[in-house]
Amino acid sequence: MNPTETKVWAELEAHFIELKQLTIAELFALDPSRGKQFAYDAPYWHVNLAKQRLTEETLKLLLRLAKEQGVQAEARAMFRGERINQTENRAVLHTALRQMGGEDLIVEGENITAQVRAVLGRMEVFCAKVHGGELVGHTGKPLRSVVNIGIGGSDLGPLMVYEALRYYALEGIRVEFVSNIDATHLVETLKGLDPEETLFIIASKTFTTQETLTNARSAKEWLLRGLRAGEEAVAKHFCALSTNLEKVEEFGIAKENIFGFWDWVGGRYSLTSAIGLSLMLGLGVENFHALRKGFYAMDRHFLEAEEEENLPLILALVGLWNNNFFGAESLAILPYDQYLHRFPAYLQQGDMESNGKAVDRQGNPVRYQTGPIIWGEPGTNGQHAFYQLIHQGTKLIPCDFIGFARPLNPLGDHHKKLMSNFFAQQQALAFGRTEAEARAMGIKEEVLPYRVFSGSRPTTCLLAEQLTPESLGALIALYEHKIFCQGILWNLDSFDQWGVELGKELAGQILPLLAGGKESVPSDSALAEVLEYYFKKQNHE
Ligand code: G6Q
Fold first, then answer.
1. Which of 243, 239, 205, 242 is nearest to 220 (CA)?
2. What is the rounded CA–CA span in Å between residue 51 and residue 526?
């Protein structure tokens, strides 16, 4: 059912009309204890929602919405392996990838847990051989550089986690990521790498993605040229992560170097599958499992916690409240930790590819807002750039502030200063600065209007003890399940991505034009016009 058709929707609308009159400052004045009231604990994470524009009544109504939409029943269906990805007729089982206890999961007669365990086992053996120097390159040298070639879901997850957990990276092995079809990415990455010591991981679920295959072929040429070797060297320097074993073998990758996964793993949810091989190689087997442990802890919380305490569900409802009632179009993700610098980009895919949809699960166009625009950068950098618009612009931008109590690099008072900014920004956004306060500070009348801050800009505070593989895994799972809940609340299929497929088709149509191999007329006059310029400049005219 669409959310707007639920019984509680009209009540939410009526409640909103009343609540929107109140600023966050007024909400605190009405109930000074709200700081405690809206605090939540989930594995590894403590979250405070008191600086959101809501009351207990809001959450009560929103939880009724979740009930009417059957969010928890749908969650159980996902964990059980029902085919909830309707448009692709697939199960959605990324949670099975990190299952660390309990009974084996059997779906449609297949032991999913055993399959996952088998691939993880092969990955571990492979990593042990690389780390121990047993697996060597064509010339007998140990493999010290790993280049993961993939894009989208086969890149962003491992790249984000590798950056986030760099502190824990193994010494003596470096991991690089190449995704863009722009040759610059590959060329710049390969500079300084020694082909004798380089292992390429070709990560592609379908093994048909233009960018990845083009980069893989060029990497192969670079390797064979560098080694002055023939195709036989490929077996020692290439492995593949894919569901399409046939296509991988066609590429020439040895069978024992192929790590499979399954159609029930969505690209953007795949980092704990074989797609995480670069992580296991770069961070070590133990850290990879610690990451899975964090995921698993949040999975259990999501599955078992009561609705009122269920953090992914609560975050989803608050997001919907800002999106569908306050009309917020975006959500800023602001990690106060430099290691998390790719986290907003990773979430951009996770959220926008999942819930950037305008057709409901019955195939009808939706008449309400769905997924928000996700963006962000680490703090405090963003404070010196785009926060101006969040503080004083015309748009309402809810923000998630993500921080840690203990730094990984305790240097002087850096962390105290970092975190004082973290807390201060949330306070400033909530309470702003009134005219009277500005005047009392001695601000001159002529600039007073510019020095006033309306406040009442909603923020969520997410805190963990320290950035560890476990807390990172839990954080990712928290957002994954939040996205899932919102998909159900908005009645969307969060697990297809036909927009991505369209891009893949269109690039294939224009390529022959650019390659000059085909006499074909561009289908629109703007394209014809820019192509004229493009070809002229290619010929230095
Ligand atoms: C993710 C999307 C998309 C996909 C890439 C790469 O959920 O489906 O980002 O991961 O297009 O696809 P392959 O892994 O098949 O190369």
1. 239
2. 48
**pLDDT of residue 273 exceeding 90:** yes
Report helix, strand or coil for 467: coil
Residue 118 dihedral angles phi and psi, to the nearest 5°: -65, -45
Q: Which atom of ligand 1 is nearest to the CA of 152?
A: 9
**Ramachandran area for residue 252 (φ above 0: left; ψ -120 to 50: alpha; else beta):** left
Cβ of 267 below 6 Å from ligand 1? yes
Convert the pLDDT of each residue in 310-337 to its tens digit.
Answer: 999 999 999 999 999 999 999 999 999 9
pLDDT by residue (tens digit) across 274-289? 999 999 999 999 999 9
- Which range, of 63-72, 105-114, 513-522, averages the lowest pLDDT? 513-522
**353 within 8 A of 498, measured Cβ to Cβ:** no
Establish whether 504 is a catalytic residue: yes
Exposed, middle or buried: residue 177 (CB in 10 Å: 0-12, 13-18, 19+)? Answer: buried
**pLDDT per residue over 202-234, tens digit each?**
999 999 999 999 999 999 999 999 999 999 999
Quick check: CB of 273 below 6 Å from ligand 1?
no
Catalytic choice (256, 504, 532, 536): 504
Q: Determine whether the shortest distance from the Cβ of 153 to ligand 1 is under 6 A.
A: yes
353 flagged as catalytic = yes
